[in-house]
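LAB NOTEBOOK - FOLDING QUEUE
OPERATOR: T.R.
BATCH SIZE: 2
PURPOSE: Compare the predicted structure-token outputs for two unrelated chains run back to back under identical settings.
PRIORITY: normal
REVIEWER: second-year student, initials M.K.

ITEM 1
FIELD SEQUENCE / FIELD STRUCTURE:
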Amino acid sequence: MKAELVSRLLGILHDEGFRTSDCSGTRSCFDILAKKREILLIKALGNIEAFSRINAMELANLAELLNAVPLVIGEQMKSARLSTGVIYSRYEVHVINAETFGDILRDRMPFIHSVRGNYCVRIDSQLLGRLRRGLDLTQEELATELGVSKQSIHRYENSGRISLDIANRLMDFLHEEIRIPGGIAEDEIHQVSGGILERNLTSLKKTVLREFQSIGLSSQATNAPFDILSLENSHEKRILSIVSDDGRRIGIKVEMLTEASEIIGGYRVCISNRRQDADILIMKPDELAEIKDAEEFVRILTRS
């Protein structure tokens, strides 16, 4: 089921001109990396109940670091199918089905959001106020027409989200479209601490993370095709690093890292005690320890 969904999503993205990388074959907080104008980090799930709070933290944190859009695309929630044209939310990450995703990429934005099991929409609250005044109605008079309280009308004119039922009743009465279409990049996702990942790192990854930070790189462990994402602050250079002594897996990870770095943009490096042929700079931990600062590290990466 998941493989079919990933294949379908890759097809949708390719049709819309996105560059993509299929990361579903490795342990990662996302299954598809895509970029056109903005970077998308997509987790594909048959049932979104499998998306945990920790998964959401990992995905949202990486999206913040990459200035990307985190997104879960699924087929059902518990035993019910996800509805087309509805934006759901799980642990503050947007969730949609494949049909809605395709519509959004074609600029057909959905209006409806599902919030704690209830359908609601965003409205142009200022337009609502102007339309009411244009009909020479007080808030209390409009409330009477709709069968709601005056306080509710006041809230509708000062906030941007109301229930779908009330929105439909308002539009039937006003004969105007007051809904505002939603999107997948509109809400701010707050960065969370990377400590939850760092507690489970191998000793080699902990050592490399400390070395990166000691030379002045802003670095965090990630659950992605790359193990550590670093930023060289003075030039805003991204550095994507594999950190592993597993010779069997390095080749596969290097291939995926190459795709990811070409889409995201940035340098790539592998820190390992093993020497092997690979289309990437492989540096031993003791060589990393000899580097004085971030600028020297970037010069080495530039020459490789």
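ITEM 2
FIELD SEQUENCE / FIELD STRUCTURE:
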Amino acid sequence: MITKPIGKIPEILIYKVPQKQTVVGYTYHKCGFPTLYRMADTKTGQLVGEMLGDVVVHDKSIHQTFYPINEPYKTFYIAELKMDERGQGYGSKFIQFAKNLSKQFGGEGRVHLVASRLYDRERPPHVFYKKLGFVSNNKFMNDYLDDCIKSKTPLESELACNLNMYLPIEGEIYTNNHKSKFQSFINFLKRFL
């Protein structure tokens, strides 16, 4: 219960919705209690988006690569991020919220996700995540997304496959070397052959 007066009402309100035990992402194959966070705009009273995620321990037993770190680490995994409106800053506020949760639960601000066109085939979120600082271990896609941002062109639908992305931590040294542009492009082409 709040006993002190509120100085200023925040522009957005993020709140938790309890969820049943479920598998958090196809990567982990472990049951957990991911949290559904909903965001409301306090000026309009409208629900503007939701994020499903959880803090997880990532290690070598997981065959998908996010952070190129050899030892186990904690990170906040965003399983789903859906926004009703784009361009209002709600998505970036959710990412900052996830980063803060990661810090709160020992993840040092690490956040990772799989960029997917599942919820929006016309405008997949890959470029949005790249603008917020997310990167992939796929150098070709990092360069391509940077080019999309510089030229203000949308991501081509053929390249909007699921892409593992993570938010780098300042000062953290990553041990894996990125693949060359050529090798990344060859690996990309192999998906279609």
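REVIEWER COMMENT (ITEM 2): The chain has a mean pLDDT of 81.
FOLLOW-UP: none requested
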